[in-house]
Amino acid sequence: MTEVFFYHGAADKVAAACALLGGAYAQKKPMLVYVPEKELASHIDRQLWNQPALSFVPHCRADSPLAAETPVLITDNLDQPAQLDRLMNLDLNAPPGFERFQRLIEVVGQDDEDRLAARARVKFYKDSGCEVQYFDLSKR
């Protein structure tokens, strides 16, 4: 059963996602990042090149020739995921085939659209039998 982790209340959703990806990389935990919106995927890509200021999180698109040797992959397609351990979802909807992954990380901002969509995903995951854990980023 997929473990679901909701990191909610992020003042800056992209910065929070990049910080979590940096932490996963530091712990040598590969991550697949599901971002179907091309503009947001590009923003994540740029942020990972720039933050944190004194380190670098190796990343690329999942369809890159370097994907097999890169720990953080950004994709808009989960038909043939590169790995099935950790998936970060940055879409407003539950990612297709999420149940194939061991862990699902959700990052939720503070705007109403994001919060309402997250509530619907929580209900969906719970109805699917997943245990959901919550982490409040607004207190950091």
Describe the structure.
It comes from Candidatus Dechloromonas phosphorivorans. One of its GO terms (molecular function) is DNA-directed DNA polymerase activity. InterPro entries: DNA_pol3_chi, PolIII_chi_sf. This is DNA polymerase III subunit chi. This protein is an alpha/beta fold. It has one domain (3-139): Rossmann fold. It has three helices and seven strands, in the order βαβαββββαβ. The chain has helices at 13-26, 38-50, 112-127, and strands spanning 3-10, 31-34, 59-61, 72-75, 86-89, 103-109, 131-136. The protein has a seven-stranded parallel β-sheet, with helices on both faces. The protein is globular.
Q: Would you summarize the structure shown here?
A:
By secondary structure, the chain is α/β, with parallel strands linked by helices.
List keywords for this structure.
single chain, 140 residues, alpha/beta, Rossmann fold, 7-stranded parallel beta sheet, 3 helices, 31% helix, globular, DNA-directed DNA polymerase activity, PolIII_chi_sf, DNA binding
Topology as H/E string?
Answer: EHEHEEEEHE
Q: How many separate helices?
A: 3
Q: CATH-wise, what's the superfamily?
A: DNA polymerase III subunit chi
Question: Based on DSSP secondary structure assignment, what is the total number of beta strands?
Answer: 7
The helix/strand class is alpha/beta
Uncertain runs are: none
**Could you give a short account of the major beta sheet?**
7 strands, parallel
Report the portion of residues in β strands. 25-35%
How confident overall, as mean pLDDT?
A: 92
Name of the CATH first level: Alpha Beta
- End-to-end distance: 30 Å
Protein name: DNA polymerase III subunit chi
Pfam families: DNA_pol3_chi
Organism: Candidatus Dechloromonas phosphorivorans
GO biological process, one term: positive regulation of DNA-templated DNA replication initiation
